[in-house]
Amino acid sequence: MKRYPASLLITTLAVCAAPAFAKGDIEAGKAKAVPCQACHGADGNAADPQYPRLAGQYHDYLERALREYKSGDRKNPIMAGFATTLSDEDIVNVAAYFSSLPGSKLTDLHDKVQGD
Amino acid sequence: MPAVAAGDGWPLYSPGLTPEKFNQRRTGTKMTRAPLLAAVLLITSLPSFAADKGDAAAGKTKVYTCAGCHGIPGWKNPYPNYHVPKIGGQNYDYLVAALNGYKKGERAHPTMRAQGESLSEQDIRDIATYLSSLTP
Min CA distance, B95 vs chain A (Å)? Predict the structure, then answer.
């Protein structure tokens, strides 16, 4: 089993393992996020103003929101229905996926307040 | 209602025609659906947000407190530890629903509940209008 150099194997493992540990598995999250697209948009920028835009949102905030919908700390019948089907790992992955989406329309309020 | 008599123009072949309908046609008093249709079109063509949206300029002043946390790139909620969300550019209706959710205690977050409770419905609409107008 000396077909691949050990350094390549180590690099591959490091590259694959590091993001998965820190921010979840984006590809796995994408697979789980198909039902989300109906309301939150295929690109995560919901066109219907009653649903939030998720593309580019902080992944740990999205995780928090999904856990709260699941636990009932946030009361929303639609989101409770979806969030209760997600495992903790799914939540981390789905949050990582939406956070990673390009074309975010979200921004913080830095320099956007009267007087700035 | 005047009686319908022969010679008043009653058509020879008139299935379904009643004296009432005949008189309405003859005198021009028949109610048509046109005014109703016009009213429905007028109401549905009005922008649905016209009555709901707030004042963006007022909102820009009212988000002063929000910026204490949401205006600092990468700012984290202290405990539990996670980033406070980016709220600029978020959708209007969702922002209104979220702020009302905190206000009513339907979202469990003590700081945001206190903020929500300090806001009037007008404040919420103004803030949501301003925030949703922002771009990255």
Answer: 8
Residue A52 token pair:
């939030």
Q: Which of A66, A109, A116 to mutate to test binding with chain B, by most B CBs within 10 Å of its CB?
A: A109
Residue of chain A whose alpha carbon sits nearest to that of B75: A108
**Quick one: A34 exposed, middle or buried, by C-beta within 10 A (0-12, 13-18, 19+)?**
exposed
CA distance B32 to A16: 71
Give the pLDDT of chain B (136 residues) as one tens digit per residue: 555 555 567 676 777 777 777 777 766 666 566 666 666 555 555 544 444 799 999 999 999 999 999 999 999 988 889 999 999 999 999 999 999 999 999 999 999 999 999 999 999 999 999 999 999 9
Q: Which amino acid is at B99?
A: L
Question: Residue A83 is inside which H or E element, if any?
Answer: helix A77-83
Q: Measured at the alpha carbon of residue A40, what is the angle toward residues A39 and A45, in degrees to the nearest 5?
A: 140
- Chain B residues touching A107 at Cβ < 8 A: 86, 88-89, 134-136
Cβ-based contacts under 8 A for chains A and B: 110
- What ipTM describes this predicted complex? 0.80
Residues of A within 8 A of B85 (CB-CB) are: 57-58, 61, 65, 106
B19 interface with A at CB cutoff 8 Å: no
Spatial distance between the Cα atoms of A59 and A100, rounded to a whole number of angstroms:
8
Instruction: Return the SS3 of B22.
Output: helix
Pairing of strands B76-77, B82-83: antiparallel
To 10 degrees, what angle do helices B121-133 and B92-103 make?
Answer: 140
